[in-house]
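Question: I have long wanted to understand how a fold can be written as tokens. Here is the record:
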Amino acid sequence: MSAPAGQPPVALTVAGSDPSGGAGIQADLKSFLANGVYGAAVITALTAQNTCGVRSATVVDEAMVADQLDAVLDDLTLGAAKTGMLATAGIVSLVGRAAATGRLPNLVVDPVMVATSGDRLLDEGAEAAYQRELLPHALIVTPNLAEAAVLTGQPVSTLDGMRTAARTLRRWGVPWVLVKGGHLEGAAVDLLCGPDGEWTLSAPRVASANTHGTGCSLSAAIAARLAAGDHPLAAVTAAKAFVADAIASAAGWHLGAGHACFRQPLSYLWIRSRFWVRSLVPAADESCSCVRSAPKEIAPRAWATNCRGWSCAASKATASSSRRSGDRPGRARMRP
């Protein structure tokens, strides 16, 4: 559902909490903000974790999860929703029932089962609830290789395996399936399978240990772009570029003590000057590399993408427009 003119779209995350800020609802809300969307959150679990791993977790009572969900849905008009850590079959079913009524539009399901550190985040046997009660009501599901294998019961370690898993998940009723190939050797290749065909989305692999929370961030960015009105293919493509850019921008950061196999947090502070923002200028400077680099299928209108330091004509005009309207200098207003 489109947001009224002059206010941002709204996206909801239903997921667990990461007190270190690298994953879970904290990552989702940052990703929503960076993509120009107002974020709401329903907490399903409290974890004690940091960049080195999960120390403990407490699942929120199902009645409390339901109360949170009702409180949000009774008040806010959502453009999209996403799920992360749902922890138990009961919570998976609860969210599935809400989705079945149409109250969770443009639902992106990130089937979080195991943390990057190897700690399990979903009860044994809860996977079946995804197939029966949640996935039939989702628009997109975004499993990694391990999650795709658990959901389908098939080995997924090659591009052909990803394709087979995606087709299986689509037969369960999910229109769009994004199988993430981040753990494949070589380039970071994801496979997107939808009603109109299949696409391999490739990006150069960045030499960085700062990848904790990338799955959460990716699914949240997809939900944000859907809330803003993007087609699923455009939303996935933009979200992948958004996350790849964030990883590359913070490759040299050292937040926390996590090491090689326990990843450090994905950078968001860097994104503050690299928002993917619709240009407020009706006729942007087409010679600007920022506008020129925006994929046309993602941004049919002019965008000021990844602009640094307000150096291009479009960005200078945007900043000038913001100052005239009373905004603080140097900041573009986010519009749907």
Notes: Residues 277-324 form one domain. The CA atoms of residues 288 and 312 lie 6 Å apart. The chain is about 35% helix and 20% strand.
